[in-house]
């Protein structure tokens, strides 16, 4: 595996840990406050990193507004993870999230949505993709 595949695996591990800890905190202090706390802490961390690295602020008026949508989506993702994990557990929350990610990312790649480079689903990948989706469906339904 190359470095970026290893980083993607690490991302998945961190995501599962995050879903667990987010769910526990949201049960203790509530969905809205826990979501706020996570984002404030994330903001403080990235501000510190940016200050240490001496990153300059970009000219925001030159950036298309749609590119700021992930900030809103991240709030929704954490909120929905907190809500779901407390009701259906971490495995099912992560599994259903992975299912959604695979379906949408495949459509984005295959059709070149949002202006990304087209990366068609090759015949060689259809079997492995089908096995992953089948496994996720079993996790979701059983």
Automatic annotation (TrEMBL):
Signal peptide residues on this chain, from the entry's feature table: none
Keyword vocabulary terms for this entry: Membrane, Transmembrane, Transmembrane helix
TM segment ranges: 7-25, 31-51, 63-82, 88-114, 126-141
InterPro entries hit by this protein: YdcZ
Coiled coil regions in record: none
Pfam families associated with the record: DMT_YdcZ (PF04657)
Keyword Membrane in annotation: yes
This protein's GO CC annotations: plasma membrane
Protein name, per record: DMT family transporter
UniProt organism field: Clostridium botulinum
Taxonomic lineage of the native organism: Bacteria, Bacillati, Bacillota, Clostridia, Eubacteriales
